[in-house]
Amino acid sequence: MTYIPNYVFEGEPAIGETMQVAPGIHWLRMPLPFKLDHINLWLLEDGDEWVIVDTGICTDDCKAAWETLFQGTMGGRPVNRVVVTHFHPDHAGLAGWLTERFNVPLIMPLTEWTFGRMLSLDGQEVSLDVYKKFYHRAGFTPELMDTVTRRMGGYKKAVSTIPAALQRIEDGSEIIIGGKSWRMIVGRGHSPEHACLYCDEADVLISGDQVLPKISPNVSVWPQEPDGQPLQLYIQSIEHLRQQIPGDPLILPSHNWPFKGLHARLDDLDAHHVERLDDTVEALFEPSTGVEVLYRLFKRELDEHQTFFAIGETLAHLHQLVMDGRAVRSVRDDGVYIFTLT
Fold first, then answer.
1. What is the CATH number of the domain that holds 119?
2. Which residues in 83-97 are b (16+ Cβ under 10 Å) and which e?
3. Of 41, 114, 141, 260, which residue is the least packed, with the fewest Cβ within 10 Å?
4. Average pLDDT, the chain
5. Domain for residue 105, yes or no?
6. How many domains does the chain divide into?
7. pLDDT at 2
8. Does 314 map to a domain?
9. Contact at 8 Å (CB) between 115 and 88?
């Protein structure tokens, strides 16, 4: 049976405007320069001040939208904290700009901050060989390898420098905002230590990218951890969310629209990856590289940005098959990895 999201609201806030989704909780959107062309951010009232949850990417369009909000919905009232769910540039891209503007702390999981801080300071000369080795092993053609060099340093271009200090939150941490407790629930697989924020009193879950209503969150292997098992971590995180939130909160995702039906969606995401693993088995009808499997799994035309996410997802499922004993990985004479069914 196909999962159908239970959306709660009609319409969405225009850029530079907000929509109240619960008492003291406001929904805003920022543009993204990708096919997934928006991100949802959240403003939480904290007395006469504001707490910002996620920031948008570092572009002039996003900065302009924030300037409109500062004088509009936010009414010139100060911000006292910036909370970031994870290091990806659409979530952390303006963390430095906002914390510096308001002279306030950044609140973020330590692993997410470390990863973002590292990438925001990393130079191409340091990492290019690691990236080239990773994508060569995945089976990138010479044409695809050219895009690796071109994309190096992309994170630095999409963020204002990640602040040099933070206030750490971790699984079970509580933040008091507007007299209510928001508890952090860690999700893994999409990013190293993704912060979902749950307020039992308001019955609201800010799910970030960990739980989305329409698309499955990207779960990828990346060059920094070439032998990683992100799909295993993501599947474990689905169970962790089930246990931590037994009820049916309003879910505030980073993409698409607020919705309800958390446990039905978690079941659907679990089933999606079981099906995707079976699809990957079918795609391994002969010994194959990661790229060869990618093109069998993704039938539609992919742009450059999507190709890098697609190879990461393909490798995540191949690594899971190896971990489950359903496939083995070997190395060809040219250093490319070959996956074969057992």
1. 3.60.15.10
2. bbbbbbbbbbbbbbb
3. 141
4. 96
5. yes
6. 1
7. 78
8. no
9. no
Give residues with Cβ within 8 angstroms of 191, minimum separation 6. Answer: 86, 87, 88, 112, 115, 209
pLDDT at res. 69 = 97
In a domain, 269, yes or no: no
Residue 278 lies in a domain: no
Q: Which among 49, 162, 151, 155 has a CA at the least distance from the CA of 99? A: 162
What single-letter DSSP state applies at residue 309?
Answer: H
- Asked whether the predicted pLDDT for residue 125 surpasses 70, the reply is no
Place of tokens 């490798």: 315
Residue 192's nearest CA partner among 166, 167, 225, 148 is 225
Closest CA to 109 of 193, 214, 231: 193
pLDDT at 124: 65
Binning pLDDT at 50, 70 and 90, where does residue 301 land?
Answer: confident
Cα distances from 79 to residues 2, 30, 64, 75, in angstroms, run 42, 18, 17, 11
How far apart (Å, rounded) are the C-alpha atoms in residues 258 and 261?
Answer: 11
Q: Is pLDDT above 90 for 7?
A: yes
Indicate the DSSP class of residue 245: -
Q: What is the pLDDT of residue 150?
A: 85
Determine the structural domain holding residue 173 and report its residue range: 6-261
